[in-house]
Amino acid sequence: PATPTRHRDWKKTQDEATYTFSTLLPLSYLPNPQKSHRFLARLRDDAGIKASMRKHKFSVGVLTEMDPAAHTTHSSRTLGLNRNQGEVIELRLRTDAYDGYRDYKTIRKTLCHELAHNVYGEHDRDFWDLTTRIEREVEENDWRAGGHALTDQEFYNPEDGGVDGEHMDDGGWTGGEFVLGGSNSAVPASDKHGPGRRELMAQAAEERMKRQRDTNK
């Protein structure tokens, strides 16, 4: 009998190329940026994340890591940030001592939270309802059954159960240069949250040009 032709869902393929993270940007000044790039790529290619981004038509310009030292105080640790409704999403991939990486499922849950900031800036009821929907969609569409097959993977960290004082973010960022958060005053991003918007966007543009040069070789 004739072998059936495998049908390719071109609409899905096109949507996945559109609703994704355009640039992955590890921090080159931190140890082993290649490993951080693998972590970011795994998040980008996660079946559950891809399905939810297609459903909500989320496009993110830059997915990058944050420097833990720049986002830690004596009382709190920031896990993620979203600048300008998806222009840049930063995730805390590394441990505080830079000697390892946070657990993959913990970071993926943070990413769900930050994706919801593509729609809502404030942590209101609408925001939390959307975050819950995204988390559920990611779990349901994960072909590894919600990540249960991660025990033999590179970024499985069973010791990472969360730490007292951790919080996701101070709400969505607006304008790129200021953070709107828990205080009554806006705080310049360059003073409070490490690399500023211009620096990250310049690095992302450089990364895209490098990829294009490599492709044309």
Strands in their spatial order, largest beta sheet: 1-2-5-4
Helix content: 25-40%
Radius of gyration: 18 Å
Strand content: 5-15%
Class by SSE composition: alpha/beta
Main β sheet profile: 4 strands, mixed
Tally the helices: 7
Distance between the termini: 43 Å
Shape: globular
Mean pLDDT: 77
Low-confidence stretches: 146-152, 161-165, 173-193
Order of helices and strands: HEHHEEEEHHEEEHH
How many strand units? 8
Descriptive report:
This protein is an alpha/beta fold and 217 residues long. It contains seven helices and eight strands. The strands form three sheets. Strands 1-2-5-4 form a four-stranded mixed β-sheet, with helices on both faces. The protein has a two-stranded parallel ribbon with strand order 3-6. It is globular and about 50 Å long.
